[in-house]
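Exercise 7. Given the encoded structure of a 363-residue chain, write a plausible sequence.
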């Protein structure tokens, strides 16, 4: 069993403040992903958990034991980095066995552990190869194997797939998810790729400028983002936003006008006034095309990707609009289409970027 608790973590490098009051509880066997834009502090937080970096203040608690002042080797964790850091002159077997040789484990036990890890990672037929004879995905699996043989309580991954091409990343995502199911160990994974976060995580921690913006399951963040930042970060293609000050409040409901369209939104309006600036968020996959009504979209680019058609273009002067339509949609660049959507699918954000809570039943 391995739970991880972070309490009031702050981190500064000299004058530069990087993390602010991080509080987080990670359950036993949970797959938790730290996600956020470059520089938001993901790696620093992971390094603080590992003990490679010390928090300026705050505590790291693993299995109810405060390890804030313990060196990495005493924390029962193992870290896999973006660069595989394999020894090029050693075989795959010896690379995986390396931490066991350092620990002077007897040969029989060492072999058993290496073979077991190689079986889990499907590397059994590559054990005599050198790293230079392996693909990028296989090399990353060797690096993971080196972690597995140490039998850690917690695995830490720092952007392990970012050196791989898109196809291999897809395969490795599935392999890591399977690995988690097989090993049933707590895993903490850092990425800036929201697709990795959505597909692998039990729990996503969205970081922004050193602060936790929101914690939740992938679908909770998708359906109920608490801020415009999370709404724009989670989901692919990104959520569309339309700004309006044409806002009214009647009978505890928000009425907004966007172009010719009048929307009634069931959201908490207790802190909103008529005329307030509101950003309406609508996901590309929640849009449809109608022969009449709706809002006009001037289409610049049409992408046919098989199962769907993706339109890129402008809506009411915003040139970053995107709509995902069924594959049989026949639309050409240069056309203007009329976009429609169900107002219950819309999100509303105030001028501070905070979501107005939906008052109808949550998904
Ligand atoms: P990326 O996705 O680009 O790896 P990240 O979210 O992992 O980014 P960190 O690597 O944790 O971000 O860095 C957070 C901030 O801390 C950055 O502004 C970075 O410049 C700063 N930082 C990190 N390590 C140090 C250091 N050793 N000395 C000074 N500043 C540092």
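Solution.
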């Amino acid at each position: 069993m391995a739970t991880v608790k972070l309490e009031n973590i702050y981190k500064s490098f000299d004058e530069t403040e990087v993390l602010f009051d991080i509080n987080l509880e990670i359950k036993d066997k949970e797959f938790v992903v730290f996600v956020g834009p470059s520089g938001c502090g993901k790696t620093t937080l992971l390094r603080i958990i590992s003990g490679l970096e010390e928090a300026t203040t705050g505590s790291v608690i693993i299995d109810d034991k405060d390890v804030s002042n313990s060196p990495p080797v005493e924390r029962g964790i193992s870290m896999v980095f973006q660069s595989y850091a394999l020894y090029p002159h050693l075989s795959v077997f010896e690379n995986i066995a390396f931490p066991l040789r350092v620990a002077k484990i007897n040969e029989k036990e060492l072999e058993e552990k290496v073979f077991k890890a190689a079986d889990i990672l499907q590397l059994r037929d590559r054990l005599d190869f050198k790293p230079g004879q392996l693909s990028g995905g296989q090399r990353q699996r060797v690096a993971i194997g080196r972690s597995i043989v140490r039998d850690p309580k917690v695995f830490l991954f720092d952007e392990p797939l970012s050196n791989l091409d898109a196809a291999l990343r897809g395969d490795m995502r599935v392999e890591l998810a399977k690995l988690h199911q097989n090993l049933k160990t707590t895993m903490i994974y850092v990425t800036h790729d929201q697709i990795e976060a959505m597909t692998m995580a039990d729990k996503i921690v969205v970081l922004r400028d050193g602060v936790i913006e929101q914690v939740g399951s992938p679908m909770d963040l998708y359906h109920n983002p608490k801020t415009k930042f999370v709404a724009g970060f989670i989901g692919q293609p990104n959520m569309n936003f339309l700004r309006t000050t044409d806002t009214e409040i009647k009978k505890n409901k928000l009425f907004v006008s966007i172009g010719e369209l009048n929307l009634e939104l069931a959201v908490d309006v207790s802190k909103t006034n008529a005329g307030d600036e509101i950003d309406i968020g609508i996901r590309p996959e929640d849009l449809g095309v109608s022969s009449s009504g709706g809002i006009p979209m001037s289409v610049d680019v049409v992408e046919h990707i098989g199962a769907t058609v993706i339109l890129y273009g402008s809506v009411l002067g915003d040139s970053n609009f995107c709509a995902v339509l069924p594959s049989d949609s026949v639309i050409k660049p240069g056309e203007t289409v009329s976009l429609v959507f169900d107002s219950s699918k819309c999100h509303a954000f105030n001028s501070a970027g905070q979501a107005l809570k939906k008052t109808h039943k949550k998904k």
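Remark. The chain has a mean pLDDT of 92. Students should compare their own answers with the one above.
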